[in-house]
Design brief:
Length: 107
Amino acid sequence: MRILPQALKNIFKKPFTHRYPYKPMILTPGARGDFTWTREKCIFCQICERVCPAEAIKINKEKKIYEMDNGKCVFCGTCEENCPTKAIHFKEQLAPVDTKRKVRKFQ
Ligand code: SF4
Ligand code: SF4
């Protein structure tokens, strides 16, 4: 019954799990969380769309519509690394929680 003392000790310890999304989740520096795209910086070169391994980015150059599918994204950061104008950035906080798969449309 060596497990019993450990179980009793654990009752008084703080949990190892996070209460996200009820409490903000602090990510380690450099972690890729919520995807952001800045319209003013984007030149619609479509490099991010071409380099994305998950085909998560769709750009309509003529209509200046930028779409990113959170459900497809694998958070590899390739789009951010290759963007010549630094229009893409991943925040060090998690993306908002949603129960439905959504394509985020930016205009
Ligand atoms: S690589 Fe950057 S500048 Fe080019 S389309 Fe993507 S976000 Fe815009
Ligand atoms: S992080 Fe990777 S998978 Fe997600 S949109 Fe950028 S290139 Fe595509």
